Amino acid sequence: MNAALIEAVGVGDVIEVYTAHPPDLTWNGMPVSGDAGLELGLIQNFDLPWNIRGAGR
After folding, report:
1. Does the pLDDT of residue 54 top 70, yes or no?
2. Between the CA of residue 4 and those of 28, 31, 51, 56, 57, what are the distances in Å?
3. Burial of 42 (0-12, 13-18, 19+ CB in 10 A)
4. pTM for this structure?
5. Which of 23, 18, 20, 17 is nearest to 5 (CA)?
6. Which of 11, 25, 48, 55 is the most exposed place for a label (fewest CB within 10 A)?
7. What is the pLDDT of residues 11-42, one digit of tens each?
8. CA-CA distance, 25 to 46, in Å (whole number)?
9. Per the domain annotation, does 33 fall within a domain?
10. In the 3-class helix/strand/coil scheme, how is the chain assigned residue by residue?
11. Taxonomically, which superkingdom (predicted)?
């Protein structure tokens, strides 16, 4: 992924970056991180070659 981004920027391509910051919440009196929960869901559902914890591994 890093190499692909460096190559794209090197030839003048525009890279768009999107972010998400879901709100933290409380469940049964326990704090729950919205960011960590979203990250885990993405890791578990997408088979990304650079992520050793991706889906199906």
Report:
1. no
2. 43, 37, 15, 23, 23
3. middle
4. 0.59
5. 17
6. 11
7. 999 999 999 999 999 999 999 999 999 988 88
8. 25
9. yes
10. CHHHHHHHHHCCCCCCCCCCCCCCEEECCEEECHHHHHHHHHHHHCCCCCCCCCCCC
11. Bacteria
In a domain, 7, yes or no: no
Task: Please report, as a single letter, which amino acid is at residue 41.
Answer: G
Domain residue limits at 50: 18-57
Flag whether pLDDT at 2 surpasses 90.
no
Q: Is the dihedral of CA 56, 53, 28, 26 positive or negative?
A: negative
* 6 inside domain: no
